Amino acid sequence: MNLGEFRDIYIKKIDDVNIKFIESLNIASKLKEAMMYSYTAGGKRLRPLLLLSTLYALDEDVNKGINTAASLELIHTSSLIHDDLPAMDNDDFRRGKLTNHKVYGEATAILAGDSLLVNSFQLITNDDLISSEVKLKLIDKLSACSGANGMIGGQQLDLENENKVIDIETIKKINLYKTGKLIEFALVAPAIIANLDNEYISSLEKISYHIGIAFQIKDDILDVIGNKSIIGKPVNSDKKNNKLTYVTELGLNKAEERLFHHYNTALNILNNLNIKSQLMEEIFNIIIYRNN
Ligand code: GRG
């Protein structure tokens, strides 16, 4: 199967699951509308694609990962809503549309982000295709990767280091948590679903480490040289928020060198696993060569 076919089949399934799930929530209509607004605002769906292509590479039934991948995308969406808030990056546009708080107000945007995060776990608990033991392991890993020791902790580090002169190691650490931890989940969840051993999990974690950093370096590069109408949000947001990134620290050329270093290292580890990794590699390429 090629990536286009894979994406057409499985991303549709994920969007169906998430849209039905949000529709099924019997709540205040403005909250539900705000959740739906950001989920359906677009987005490349790279994290679910990574998760499902890894399951495919491991020769597992890809359908066993649909709800887990859907859950991951809900959490990613929640983080974007919060990231754009006035107390964080204070951005007006995301995915080419007004940010959630610009449409629904700050209070509802906070609650929409909270609900997308908290309710996401129910997609795993309600999955009929995986065992209770696997569900517990997935929820444990997903909460670890999202919470204070994961993405949210990374965002806190990012905030604390605004306006500071920091070294490349600190920038790397921020990236590793803020962006890398959800990528880690995308690569490790398939190993949990496939009941693989710790040695395998550790190799996938290593790949996610490098691809997670590469992902964020590319994001930082696009923040400087991206086209606003293609990336769907303002450029130079990092400069506006006095954030140091690989690009501000090293310049574009050296940042790009680092990007390729991490990309190539991830590919080498992946190739040593001898799995059906062609789709994974195509997604790595999208991460590295994308223009949005
Ligand atoms: C949800 C309680 C709660 C807190 C959120 C704000 C925050 C804490 C974390 C920020 C995490 C963040 C936004 C990291 C940047 C990750 C990143 C590179 C996002 C862009 O991802 P893409 O390119 O976006 O996959 P699309 O729009 O394609 O989905």
Q: Mind sketching the topology for me?
A:
Elements: H1 3-24, H2 29-39, H3 46-57, H4 66-84, E1 93-94, E2 97-98, H5 100-104, H6 106-125, H7 132-146, H8 151-160, H9 168-178, H10 180-193, H11 198-225, H12 228-231, H13 237-240, H14 246-250, H15 252-272, H16 278-289
Antiparallel strand pairs: 1-2
Helix pairs in contact: 1-2, 1-3, 1-4, 2-6, 3-4, 3-10, 3-16, 4-6, 4-10, 7-10, 8-9, 10-11, 11-15, 11-16
The structure holds geranylgeranyl diphosphate (GRG).
Strand order of the largest sheet: 1-2
Residues in helices, as a percent range: over 70%
Radius of gyration: 18 Å
The fraction of residues in strands falls at: under 5%
In this structure, how is the largest beta sheet organized? 2 strands, antiparallel
The dominant shape is globular
Q: Helical element count?
A: 16
Characterization of this structure:
With 292 residues, this protein is mostly helical. 73% of the residues lie in helices and 1% in strands. It has helices spanning 3-24, 29-39, 46-57, 66-84, 100-104, 106-125, 132-146, 151-160, 168-178, 180-193, 198-225, 228-231, 237-240, 246-250, 252-272, 278-289; strands at residues 93-94, 97-98. A two-stranded antiparallel ribbon has the order 1-2. Helix 3 packs parallel to helix 10, helix 3 packs antiparallel against helix 16 (278-289) and helix 11 packs parallel to helix 16 (278-289). The mean pLDDT is 94. Geranylgeranyl diphosphate binds at residues 43-44, 46, 78-80, 82-83, 88, 95, 113, 117, 151-152, 155, 178-179, 215-216, 219.
